[in-house]
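Hi Q.,

Before the meeting this afternoon, I wanted you to have the cobalt (II) ion prediction in hand. No need to reply - just skim if you have a minute. The sequence and ligand are here:
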Amino acid sequence: MQILKTNTTPFDGQRPGTSGLRKKVKTFKQPHYLENFVQAIFDTQGDLVGGTLVVGGDGRYYNREATQIILRIAAANGVAHVIVGQSGLLSTPAVSCVIRKYKAHGGIVLSASHNPGGPDEDFGIKFNTANGGPAPENVTEAIYQRTTTINDFQTLETTDIDLDKIGTLQLHEMQVEIIDPVTDYAELMQSLFDFESIRNLFESGSFSMRFDAMHAITGPYACRILEEMLGAPSGTVINGTPLTDFGGGHPDPNLVHAHEIVSMTQGSNGIDFAAASDGDGDRNMVLGQNFFVTPSDSLAVIVANYHLISGYQKDKIKGVARSMPTSQAVDHVADKLGIECFETPTGWKFFGNLLDAEKITFCGEESFGTGSNHVREKDGLWAVLFWLNLLAVKKQSVATIVQEHWREFGRNYYTRYDYEGVNKEAATDLMQQLRNKLASLPGTQIQNHTIEYADDFSYTDPIDNTVSKNQGVRIGFIGGSRIIYRLSGTGTEGATLRVYLESYEIDPEKQQQATAGVMTPLISIAQELAQITQKTGRTQPTVIT
Ligand code: VG1
Ligand code: CO
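Predicted structure with the ligand bound:
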């Protein structure tokens, strides 16, 4: 086996976004496109040379080919040991778990998360550091800078290895260890939750559940943990076989894309508890009978009840964190518990420092992401198991748990409007116009609401003082309502404008209204302030969550 040095030229646009580098498969398949980016990782992350690397992906189209390419480049660059999931599979939280457990120096996740997969759809690659979390901005920026000057990459001249067989093999001087993708993760879950109580809940016969893996990576994890280890009836997991195109679906666990599972909870015979996860297994949606738990509420409920869960009750809770657009529901819980609540920019990478410094125990995002200090990624099945454990302990329905929570802490009505595939210039212009008028907004009245503050969110990391600017426009109203505007950093076509809306209701008499109705005035203000229709030509969003 020979190491080959191949000349290459830089590609434009290899700067990672909110969560890694995401492009159309066709872009990734261009000769040297993936190679350049991977070589840039090795060129900038010196610890990997002679070190251990974890590799795995969500099983989407091109996962296998990309894994082989990465292994050859890793071997040529002197990586000593690679841990790879069988068939090239590992969920995002499992990568984080494996990096931490085996003290690897980093990991490569092959995924475009909730974006569709297939030859004409999306692929992605993300680098995680030794703490198991997404690389912080200084690391992704260094990798990106390297891609702009790269002129060669190294690879091992060898045939493909058999990724399907668990075991250890040698690739030149590099040891390749192919592991079962589920075992380590399942053990971690078992250490956090009371499997006995959850098993009893399933065995009681009076509790029904479905988990929708959306033909993505969580299928094997959910089958093993829910059906095999916890005794849930077979058939509890639906769409459990990972497919390279996710069955043609959009593996995003929300009310629109996961409508199959949503409909199972509806009506008087609706199932008691339902959940879904996304392409790479880091997101979750939680539903009760005729009841949708917003991700922001889910985080708040988790924090308010952490003392009931065995893996968390031993240590006093540190603090909590939420991304800026996430509703302030968890802030009210933090207030009551007397713990700090951090507000970070969108993207899990901003939680890493807070978790490492033990400033927080739990964190979450409105975009169906919840997690804790057990790994350094958001974790879909973890959240589902947390809820299952809670249901087993509280012996109440999902709806009752959330409604009692609202009575105690108030309800943060919340909704998000996404305008996908908008013209890029139009979207940038809309944001710029908003930024231009921020200074003049405080104190002004619009449709009976008075603006209290208006700014472009800027974050100074409390641990390393890194400043991240322009993280979204925030408009706050007297009374606690908020409108937030930002452009997505994960899309691959045009621009996606996200508008996040929140309003707070402390009066229990008014906490049972339909969200859409409560939000109508704010939506109208959001339209007017940003001139959404005039600028984008859209009268309606593409997706409402
Ligand atoms: C979106 C979400 C963000 C999440 C990110 C990655 O980013 O809003 O909260 O962290 O996706 O999630 P953006 O920039 O498109 O708004 V995942 O499940 O794609 O790894
Ligand atoms: Co994801």
